[in-house]
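Hi R.,

Here's the chain you asked about this morning:
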Amino acid sequence: MGSSSTAPRPQPAKKRVKKVNLWPRRIITGTGLLLIIALLGWGIYSLVMMATDATKKQVEGPQSISVYTEETVQSGDGEIRLRSTDKVTKDGIIAADDSVTIPRCTSAAIKYQASTTDTNEGAGEEVSVIVKNEGNISCWTTFGQVSLKITSGDQLIYDSAQCSAFDETATKLVLAPDLEWATSITWDGRHHLGGCVELAEGEETSSAPVAAAGTYNAQLYVGARSVTDKSAFVVIAPEPDPAA
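And here is the predicted structure, written out as tokens:
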């Protein structure tokens, strides 16, 4: 009997597993995450800084600008002594409790302007006035202390300070730096002997005579001190009646 032999079965070839290097992907992914985190952090920081700046501006406001470094502030002819916690700003003197003190205007801070126009005999004159604070801090004054004098040469024609209605405390003004306030003072066009002839009881017009045609000057005063130059104007005589 012949012997039989079994041939060995061929073994399947083993697949070679290719290793993938994941580090580049990890590096790219990690870099992207870091970039996103950095952008988020920068955005949050910017928002916080914007909010901080806005809050700072609201707290400080225009009053944060100090305009004075002395220990006192002039107030009219006197002065206000500052405390160590006071801050002098354009808006006034700011105390630690945020209360504001407005000093009285000094004579050097307040400037006046007066302007006139020609007028007809007996019509009177309306003198335009501008009051301006040329100081560096808000201050208060009263326009009632301002008087009007009308002169012709050396002759006094009218002085509003001589009238009983003159009140130095009237019309209080609070003026910020560089702020102007405009008004007018009227002369009735009459020659007032002694400066001012008062209306008698029941009278609607003064008994003072009408000022004659000619050239006149208007000038503003505070007390005995003139605060404007003379402003000249002409009182024009009426046209003659052709029938006369």
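One quick note: The longest strand covers residues 125-133.

Cheers,
M.
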